[in-house]
Design goal:
Blueprint (H helix, E strand, L loop, with lengths): L17 E6 L4 H16 L7 E7 L5 H12 L9 H8 L2 E5 L5 H11 L6 E6 L6 H10 L7 E5 L7 H12 L7 E3 L7 H11 L13 E9 L8 H5 L2 H19 L8 H14 L6 H6 E7 L1 E3 L2 E3 L17 E7 L9 E7 L6 E8 L17 E7 L3 E9 L7 E9 H4 L7 H11 L8 H19 L6 E4 L6 H8 L10
Parallel strand pairs: 1-2, 1-4, 2-3, 4-5, 5-6, 7-12, 8-17
Antiparallel strand pairs: 7-13, 8-11, 9-10, 11-12, 13-14, 14-15, 15-16
Helix pairs in contact: 1-13, 6-14, 9-10, 9-14, 10-14
Length: 496
């Protein structure tokens, strides 16, 4: 049963005048996500007349060569194709300059290119290795480019642990005030995540049910079909816990479990999110073995095509113990959530691409019907990918003479119900940075609380002689993950 409504979305408002300096302008993220996102906002009419994007990178090429490179790359990531006339118009706002991030003199050239406009919005997007964050910020300050209207965007990973994250925060915070620092997590820019906020805090229907006694358990899954895709050297130093759980999954958990904020002011929302992180029951020592499963994929088949195992991937050593899969059981020690288990899992080379939040409600206290299919009854499924949708499963009578119940889905498919094109995650987040809206960005104390919870898990692994559990590529992960949730009487969504 599909929901629908008449679209009354107002046209997008034009952004204020801005300069966006994109460090790492020839990199994968810039070509695959950032520049296509900016082009789509240009097509939507949001660019002001005085908007400028300056891509900088170590590569010494001319502007025309760079524009040709961007155009060729963007064709892959813009399904509707490129309109030559409109691309030409967009390219007038796009510039390039070679810049060595470690050379302070190059920043004087950047300052000369930008000119002296202290009141203008200036966004410095650091799509670089985190090791360069400190030196870039110091050199920007030395070139007097850090104005009251300046903002710095930090791409993940923000550190390898709490200590390294704190060093980054200290060094960047010495140059930019906290209100000018945007720690980006693209999952928070997804339309479905915004729908979760709207679902929870825009409707009175679910609030009485959003608590212990009404909700039995919650699952959060972010599954990928892809492997390391040529990023083996980076991934082997990171792993699934730090690459996905520390940011994406914990952020989804916060939005799912947080208390209603007093307003939609950025700090009001983030104040409630950090309370969730601080209320997470710590996992350390033996608790890690009982509540966390780590896995590593071996050779198998994904979507019918054979794939190699993690240890055979380029850039991976034969003895690597880096995890490509994590499943864990978490508890939030608050009045609202005490006793409700939250199951989180993420992994590479799984059976299908999927990002879902599943809320399983309690059964009725006494059923008057026979053979009630309780495993799928009263469930709310919030899908983030591959399609944005919300599905509420309830029980209804099965047609026929007998009073037998069956699950029925009430489904809201955003692509079908809303005719206005949805914003890509980076489109939303980039425009929020330019507008100065911090709601969807991590605050410093929020990042610290996330690392404080994650670090003891990694420490327990480092002290253990156990290797990650092996699982076949194209499966749903190691059998131990099914046992983790199965011994509580539940099963992972998608495996039933």
């Amino acid at each position: 049963m599909a929901a629908s409504f008449k679209d009354r979305t107002a046209p997008a408002k034009q952004l204020p005048d801005f300069d966006l300096v994109l460090f790492g302008g020839t990199g994968d993220l810039a070509m695959r996500k950032l520049l296509p996102a900016l082009f789509r906002r240009f097509l939507a009419g949001q660019f002001p007349a005085r908007a400028r994007i300056v891509s900088v990178a170590r590569t010494s090429i001319g502007r025309d060569d760079y524009l040709a490179q961007v155009e060729e790359s963007s064709k892959k990531y813009l399904p509707a194709g490129l309109d030559a006339t409109r691309w030409t118009a967009f390219s007038r706002s796009l510039d390039y300059m070679g810049l060595d991030a470690t050379n302070v003199l190059d920043y004087q050239k950047l300052a000369a290119k930008l000119g002296s406009q202290p009141a203008a919005v200036r966004v410095f997007f650091l799509s670089t290795a985190p090791a360069l964050f400190e030196i870039i910020c110091r050199h920007l300050a030395a070139a007097q480019l850090v104005t009251p209207g300046a903002r710095v965007v930090l791409e993940k990973p923000l550190g390898q642990d709490r200590a390294s994250a704190e060093h980054i925060n200290e060094s960047v915070g010495a140059i930019f005030p906290e209100r000018q620092i945007y720690r980006i997590d693209h999952y928070l820019g997804k339309e479905a995540v915004q729908n979760l906020l709207a679902l929870r805090f825009g409707n009175s229907l679910f609030e009485p049910l959003w608590r212990r006694g009404r909700i039995r358990h919650v699952q959060i899954t972010v599954a990928e079909e892809l492997g390391v895709e040529g990023r083996g050297a980076f991934y082997d130093q990171t792993g699934a816990l730090r690459d996905m759980v520390q940011n994406h999954l914990l952020q989804l958990l916060c939005i799912m479990a947080m208390e209603p904020p007093v307003s939609n002011h950025p700090d009001a929302v983030r104040d409630e999110k950090i309370k969730v992180l601080r209320a997470l029951k710590p996992l350390a020592g033996d608790d890690v073995g009982a509540n966390v499963v780590r896995g590593q994929y071996r050779a198998g088949a994904v979507a019918g095509a054979p794939v190699v195992g993690y240890l055979e991937e380029q850039g991976i050593g034969p003895d690597s113990v880096t995890e490509t899969y994590v499943a864990l059981r978490a508890h939030i020690d608050t009045w609202r959530w005490a006793g409700v288990p939250f199951y989180l899992r993420t992994g590479k080379r799984l059976q299908e691409q999927m990002a879902d939040i599943v809320i399983h409600f309690e059964d009725v206290p006494h059923s008057i019907f026979e053979r009630v299919p309780s495993a799928t009854a009263n469930r709310l499924l919030i899908s983030l990918q591959p399609r944005d949708s919300i599905t509420l499963t309830i029980l209804a009578k099965n047609p026929g003479e007998t009073m037998r119940l069956r699950p029925v889905d009430l489904r809201l498919d955003m692509a079908e119900s809303v005719k206005t094109p949805q914003l890509d995650a980076y489109e939303r987040l980039l425009t929020d940075v330019i507008k100065g809206n911090l709601t969807l960005f991590m605050r410093r104390d929020e990042l610290d609380a996330a690392w404080r919870w994650i670090d003891p898990i990694r420490e327990a692994w480092l002290q253990s002689d156990d290797r990650p559990k092996s699982y076949t590529a194209g499966s749903w992960g190691p059998a131990a993950a099914s046992s983790l949730i199965g011994k509580d009487g539940y099963a992972w969504h998608g495996e039933v």
